Please model this.
Amino acid sequence: MRKLMILSWMFILIFTFSLSHSTAQATTYTFTPTPIDMYDLDHSYAYSWQINWSLPAGQTITGASLSFSGIYDWTAESNILYLQLMDTTPSNGTDMTHGIIQYYDNQASGNYFSSSGIQLTSQSFTTTPVPYTYTFNSTQLNTLATYASDGKFYLGFDPDCHYYNSGITFTITTSQSVPEPSTFLFLGSGLLLGFVFLRKRVKQNI
Model:
């Protein structure tokens, strides 16, 4: 009976250990542009930022966010900042530094990148510096995964005013893919059969 009890506890511990090591493991990837304030988002230009990144094998994108530190409009006025996710960018820009391309739009209104990719959001700001974070929705996460499949994608910024800021950060969160339910079933069945076999051996020896 003592041996049977020990085997029972071994079965429970092994099964629990297997399940705990099959849970998703989160990983965070963080990117910042150079310069970190994206040239202070000058009203006269639109900007694209190329990010080189591939989704690691076996991982799934579970979250993404674009954050601005201390962003504010340079004066009190009607204003809007368009944010875009793209797999390609217009070809008429000027290469700046570290994957940033600048497009002169002469302070035109509207989203400069409206014909490229998908618009994430548009946002207005006051003259008071504030932190601002935009979090991707599920549809945008799926699009991000598609765009990043070739190892790169682009974020677009079209400031319809001049926005000072202390820095921009883009963050992607992934998790390790969880095994299919059939995998758990197979694992559990194998452990159960082994337990039954050992139980019979114990009874024979009693």
